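Note to self: keep these together.
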Amino acid sequence: SSAASDVYKRQVSGINLAEAELKTLAKLLKQTCSTGGTVKDGVIEIQGDHRQILKTELEKRGHQVKLAGG
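Structure:
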């Protein structure tokens, strides 16, 4: 496996926002976590293991958060 495929990513899905708003939210989450990421097919992907930070930031913005996976 390549090094790129071994990078840990967190996905944020199920947020009912327009694409432009998702990109704005992704930018904010990336800045908060001091990491990279992208928006793909309506899903925000954040590099690294930042579950708690993402959960806290999303809840602050009124989103209901359910952590999935390990």
